[in-house]
Amino acid sequence: MKKTLYSEIDRVLPKLVKMRRDIHAHPELAFEEVRTAEVASRYFKTLGLDVNRGVAKTGVVGLLRGSLPGRTLAIRAELDAVPIQERSNFSHASKKADIMHACGHDGHLAISLGTAKILSLMKDRLRGNVKFILQPADEGRGGAKAMIEAGVLQDSPRIEAILGIHSSPEVPLGKVALTDGAAVLTDSFQIQIQGRGGHPAFPQTVIDPIFLSAQVINGLQSLTGRFASSAVTLSTIQGGSAPNVIPDSVQIKGMIQIESAGQRDALRGAMESLVAGVCGAYGGRCQVDYEAGTPMPRQDAAFAGQICKGAEALWGPDHLQNLGHPAPGTEELSPFLESVPGAICLLGTTPAGAESVPLHSPYFDFNDQALAPGIQIAVATTFSYLNGGIPSR
To answer: What does pTM read for this prediction?
Structure first.
């Protein structure tokens, strides 16, 4: 079967690359993915899948029924882009200001479409069904929860396991990686520092919020030393509009990564005390808004074994890595994993000897060379889970 799989993927790759680049050029934000959903739905229909549009507003579910009875596996991909101004010079660069596919969702979607194509050609050997879940609003907007509430897990045929694939510039091209299954909590915060603006020539009459923000930022960095395996990242700071005006306020936004909910409460309390102490010492006021985020998924060991089994059957053991630690960032596969077993597979995108471009960089672009390995691992995992292994022919 491997020879057939590789040749069929090679046959469909040019079309998938074209579709992926078209999606990249026309990104859409959370719950606005109308065009993206239409492209995916139209392609699913050409393959003969049962298609349900408008799930959780802009989500799509495509159902591929195998010819033989069996279980139902879900393969999930994301539709949304992120609010970043693209700075690359690719011919398929984003045509929309301040919006781009900087997290590989265009590639994940293309992999799902390609997997649907390949499995549709092999459905006479497929024991069970594959439900393709194309989720809106992955980037911190709760799209997974909205789809679950819409019934994607329970609707017939009921999903019994779920696979997620996410591009990873840190993993070499042609390899896949699994995490150690631990959950990392990723929260966000917003700090509003209120001072009293005025003229720089009369500093005795103002309470400078920019000075206060500098003290707060230094203090926040000290929190990582007090809480093991935590990280505080500042992403935006906004305040002021002219060199001769001290502003009234400054706003700071950022993220925190921690390993346990117990640490979350303690770290949040320490942050609020630190900010209040600094601002109060200089006569300022503050407000800290803290939002608990989505943990990285805790993978099911048995299902992760299906990924390993499929990868080894295709490529041998040398192409599979175990990170040995939790993957950083957020991942909305987690809400699905609270209800069904599954795992996320990190797909390598960086060629040997090349410098990796990080996710959420304005210069990021999904590597089209990773499409084939992504489809291969998705198809192999599907047959491992549903059929017990890849057919010999």
So the answer is: 0.84
